[in-house]
Amino acid sequence: MFKKFTNGCVRVVNRWLPDAFLFAVILTIVVFIGALIATGLPVFSTAKTAEGKPVLDLITAWGGNSTFWSLLSFAMQMALVLVLGSACASAKPFKALLRTLAGMCHNNMQAIVMTTFVSTICCWLNWGFGLVIGALLAKEVVRRVPTVDYPLLIASAYSGFVVWHAGLSGSIPLDLVTGKQFPGIETVYQAPISATILHPMNLIMCGVILVAMPFVNYAMHPDKEHAVTIDPALLKDEAEIEYKKDTPADKIEHSKILWVILVVMGIAYIIHYFFIEKGSLGLNIVNFIFLFLGILLHGDLRRYVDAIAEAAAGAAGVLLQFPFYAGIMGLMVARNAEGVCLAGVISEFFVSISNHVTFPMWSFLAAGIVNFFVPSGGGQWTVQGPIMMPGGEALGIEAGRTAMAVAWGDQWTNMIQPFWALPALGIAKLSARDVMGYLVVVLLFTGVVAILGFLAWGLWF
């Protein structure tokens, strides 16, 4: 029965899911219509005339400089998380580790379980690093276990991404460390890492997923007749570049002296930041750490430059789609004369049916819905934070719990939102429709874990 359900999901997705960019285009149209309905044509008007131009107003809310291009800074941070994590993962020491891990896999079950387990741990540590490590490990594993279903293996590699926002690179919990104040709201919301990422309930939910999800993924493996396998020879890595050092310029590019100076400077600042300044973990320092860790592991500045150039190709989909999702965000928060917006309608509905125990659970579900239209964690925080955080405060719920509910909802529906799967799919040479059917099952499983977890958080903590 379980495999029949999985096969049904795979067939539906293969038939109906478009390319990730077209998915964003379709979402734009859907949200545009939803915003028109939520705000109400008769009252939505920023024009000076009595009649107004509601459609034109929404188009302006979508394509204006303050919306369509509003996430450029954040997009750069996110692209760097991905590119720096990818470059770090391509270093020889990491590749050797991946080959060692892949060598421990001798059958289909071990292949799926190992790939899921490693990907989940790495995504919790750093989402960009985990996305790439999972895909690279899957390529190494399939060379040793060619009978494994390749789309399911890549889906397993991506499934670890479902814990990223509950981990050390989660933008929402990191944003709370130094304090977050939303426009128009006087309260400054603040919570230490111990109340968010390292809270016992958050760790328990992540632990359940880490232990159980590998076996959920393996339970979906098709029988031998229906497994989609791939010739490992097609996944052969390109030969490593042999660098010449004939000219003074070549020697400068490969200078160990410059490499040592740069690495020492980077490590010195990291030590100073954490031990002297007592700085907290944030996206910028995470990127700084992965930048210099990558330089250290590659052992050569020219080699690292080339690794960055190769990794940057994986960010192409992110760079193309981010402005469109920023535009969708603009539509989600476009308000009529009475202050009504589509995101507010969705979120306030869940607030209205909540109490002290159920509010985080409903916040999680609301965030999962909104994430379809705003798949950026930072964008999601911008859209939902001003609604959910005051709602939680009014119910006497601590800021960390409300924020983590939004964070979990954001990461949850990423399983069937192809936006963030693009880098892993690029490495695997697959399309979103090849893996999304399996990820529907992952979505259902992790949704149950999160719902029960947030209910328990409210009852026991």
How would you describe this protein?
The chain is mainly α. The chain folds into 2 domains: 72-239 and 335-460, no CATH class; 248-312, no CATH class. The protein is 68% helix and 0% strand. Helix 17 (359-373) runs antiparallel to helix 21 (432-460).
Structural class: mainly alpha
Give, in order, the helices and strands: HHHHHHHHHHHHHHHHHHHHH
Q: Which strand-content bin applies to the residues?
A: under 5%
Give the helix tally.
21
The tally of strands reads: 0
- How far is the first residue's CA from the last residue's CA? 37 Å
Percentage of residues in helical conformation: 55-70%
- What general outline do the C-alpha atoms trace? globular
The averaged pLDDT comes out at 84
Radius of gyration in whole Å, from Cα? 23 Å
Give unreliable regions as ranges: 42-52
Main β sheet profile: none
Kindly give the count of domains: 2
